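Form P-L/3: holo structure prediction, ligand heme C.
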Amino acid sequence: MRKLLNVSQGAIVIFLILFSACSPKVVSPTESDLSRGKAKYPDLSLTELNEGRALYVENCNMCHGYYAPTDEPTEEWYGIVPEMVGKVNKKTGTEKIDAAEQEKILKFVVTMSSASP
Ligand code: HEC
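OUTPUT (holo model):
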């Protein structure tokens, strides 16, 4: 019985490693990211940043691998996000990402683009 438990625990650990490896470049926001982000977006919350990250992880590797927010200079993201959201919506043939969700993705990448590596 004890051995069986260990096997399934091992499987869970392997699963978690594989699962988190799917988006290693898209780091999760922390409280310190939030305080930096609030300088630009005073109403920003950690929930909103996490929602932006979830939307990013869900939609932004359909055609290429994930770019890290730090891969592009902050000011570039203001153009890239609407362009890429347009691509997502065109590819899926729906309004998969609406304007409010696009804004959350933008706040996430803009905030995280200035995270120290
Ligand atoms: C339908 C396919 C498609 C989807 C979905 C897509 N991209 Fe792209 N992406 C591309 C193509 C094609 C390029 C390279 C050519 C270009 O810049 O238009 C690219 C380039 C990029 C670049 C590099 C830009 C540059 O100037 O070099 C970034 C960053 C990026 N995508 C982010 C995203 C984000 C964020 C999302 C999710 C909102 C996303 N992509 C979803 C097709 C896609």
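COMMENT: The chain has a mean pLDDT of 88.
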